[in-house]
Design brief:
Elements (H helix, E strand, L loop, with lengths): L3 H4 L6 H16 L2 E2 L7 H4 L6 E5 L24 H10 L9 H4 L3 E5 L4 E2 L11 H13 L6 E5 H5 L11 E5 L16 H11 L9
Parallel strand pairs: 2-3, 2-5, 5-6
Antiparallel strand pairs: 1-4
């Protein structure tokens, strides 16, 4: 299921045109992450969606964000939340680049797809949430089971968009060091997801 064609109608809607005008100004006048060419990487690299992991907004440090939730570019120090994700997977990689998961069908989707340097949540409420909610709604129509991993209160607010009973929702606290030990560490989501994929005759994810 490639959802990019189904998102084409969004481009003609007033909210999306306003959002693009806002981004024109932001990229022209401020340092904004990720680079504009990378904004939609999560959609481009994940043609067949089997798992959805929802984040909030991109990392706001230089060279970190590259269009995938929780992921950072090669050569960048692995952020604390991602350290905890790898801990739960049971691996200690040298790179925090999660593109390898996207290519296997893991949609690493932030609710907001851009951010101003050093200013977390600075692009909230500008229209991205309408667009990414639409992505979730489209994935919800898929007739092959999809596993949604909702970590933390913000992601769990999106559960109301997941109405198709064939899908699976896995919930825990956020992997941030502030909350990871209250439910994320030990949640076993990655193993559970693969068990579901095998049960539903889909290829499991190589998380390592």
């Amino acid at each position: 299921m490639n959802i990019l064609p189904q998102l084409t109608p969004e481009k003609s809607k007033p909210y999306f045109q306003d959002l693009m005008q806002f981004l024109d100004y932001e990229y022209a006048n401020h340092t904004v992450f990720p680079p504009r060419k990378d904004i939609f990487n999560a959609l481009k690299y994940t043609p067949d969606i089997k798992v959805v992991i929802l984040g909030q907004d991109p990392y706001h440090g230089r060279n970190q964000a590259h269009g995938f939730a929780f992921s950072v570019n090669d050569g960048v120090r692995i952020p604390p939340s991602l350290v905890n994700i790898f801990k739960e997977i049971g691996t200690t990689p040298k790179s925090g680049n999660l593109e390898y998961l996207a290519k296997q069908g893991v949609l690493l989707l932030n609710a907001v797809l851009t951010v101003r340097e050093g200013q977390a949540n600075s692009h909230q409420g500008k229209g991205w949430e309408i667009f990414t909610n639409r992505i979730i709604e489209i994935v919800n129509t898929k007739q092959t089971p999809v596993i949604f991993m909702l970590w933390g209160n913000y992601a769990q607010q999106k559960e109301s968009l997941i109405t198709n009973p064939i899908h699976y929702v896995l919930k825990s606290t956020h992997p941030s060091p502030l909350s990871a030990n209250r439910g994320f560490i030990g949640c076993n989501h990655f193993n559970i997801a693969n068990e579901i994929l095998i049960k539903t005759k889909q290829t499991p994810i190589q998380w390592h």
